[in-house]
Specification:
This is 2-dehydropantoate 2-reductase. InterPro entries: 6-PGluconate_DH-like_C_sf, 6PGD_dom2, ApbA, KPA_reductase, KPR-Related, KPR_N, NAD(P)-bd_dom_sf. The protein has 13 helices and 12 strands. The strands form 2 sheets. An 8-stranded mixed β-sheet has the order 5-2-1-6-7-8-11-12, sandwiched between helices. It has a 4-stranded mixed β-sheet with strand order 4-3-10-9.
Length: about 325
């Protein structure tokens, strides 16, 4: 198959390397020094179960639009930051409409799929999430990833019947050692992942702590759990019911998973825009819509907006 990966950062490059290793064709869309390094030196990916280094096809967005048609690809994987989705659709909407290629979103948040479906239609829109993976660019052209790196995907917004093309895609990903399962209710799965994203990403960015440090700390762990509860409340605005058992399951999952730097913490360290609007903002907006409050989420988001940073305390000297 021929795959196009839009937003070739840590997670996009890991999945792309897996697909290349399995014999598929992959085009990576990136920018800046990372793009230039991939063009000149190839792509290197280090993972506990994969050591990949090879030349790859890496292009800028302009180069893609000038050199390729959407119909050249069997699947578009969208791994952009959520805040870039709308601008990308505005730029590439006409290009996307010239084919029937499905688009699989592997982004944070619960608002990307409606934007995609509004441009290309629900029949071509696949909701998805990358589960239990941490992946970052540690140097241009060099990716470090960890975790089982599973994918959950499904037709947007919800289907009851089996979709043969989706079954075939799942088989392809699983054969490439990307553990993949199909869900008939992708909206529920996206909200379930947002439990973790809202629980740890903003607080991690605020404190500078990894996920394990957050959940193991008595006070911060309670805050993580409370922000997950606020996420479950917000989901009701989208007619998604997240139970206390869902909250407990996701809290246990992130508590037991390897200590990872969240993507929001990495973005803050590098001075990049944070995905606040698509993570904490999504929770706050929906709670307000329901006439409810999300005090923990609101506080952490506001501190990040004010750019409050951890103070490096030093012991007093005599």
């Amino acid at each position: 198959m021929k795959f196009l990966i839009i937003g070739a950062g840590g997670i996009g490059c890991y999945y792309g390397a897996r697909l290349l290793d399995a014999g598929h064709e992959v085009t990576f869309i990136a920018r800046g020094a990372h793009l230039e390094a991939m063009k000149q030196q190839g792509l290197s990916v280090e993972h506990e179960a994969l050591h990949f280094k090879a030349s790859v096809e890496a292009l800028s967005m302009d180069e893609l639009l000038n050199r390729h048609n959407c119909a050249d690809y069997d699947l578009v994987m969208l791994a952009l930051k959520s805040g870039a989705t709308s601008d990308w659709l505005s730029e590439c909407g006409h290009w996307l409409k010239q084919a029937e290629t499905p688009v699989l979103s592997l982004q944070n948040g619960v608002d990307n799929e409606p934007l995609i479906a509004a441009v290309i239609g629900e029949e071509r829109t696949l909701g998805g999430l990358a589960v239990r993976i941490g992946g970052h660019i540690i140097a241009p052209g060099h990716i470090e990833a960890k975790g089982p790196a599973q994918v959950v995907m499904g037709r947007w917004p919800q289907v009851k019947e089996s979709v043969p093309a989706l079954d075939s895609l799942s088989d392809t990903l699983n054969a490439a050692q990307i553990p993949t399962r199909i869900t008939n209710n992708i909206r529920y799965e996206l909200w379930k992942k947002l439990l973790i994203n809202n629980g740890v990403n903003p607080l991690s960015a605020l404190t500078g702590l990894d996920t394990r440090s957050l959940t193991a700390d008595p006070a911060l762990g309670k805050t993580v759990y409370a922000m997950m509860q606020e996420t479950a409340l917000a989901a009701r605005a989208d007619d998604v019911e997240l139970t206390p058992s869902d909250v407990d399951e996701m809290f246990a999952l992130i508590s037991q998973f390897d200590a990872i730097k969240t993507s929001m913490l990495v973005d803050r360290e590098k001075g990049r825009p944070l995905e606040l609007d698509d993570i904490s903002g999504a929770v706050i907006r929906r709670c307000r819509q329901l006439g409810e409050s999300a005090p923990n989420t609101e506080l952490v988001e506001r501190l990040l907006q004010l750019d409050i940073r951890p103070v490096q305390w030093r012991p007093l000297t005599a």
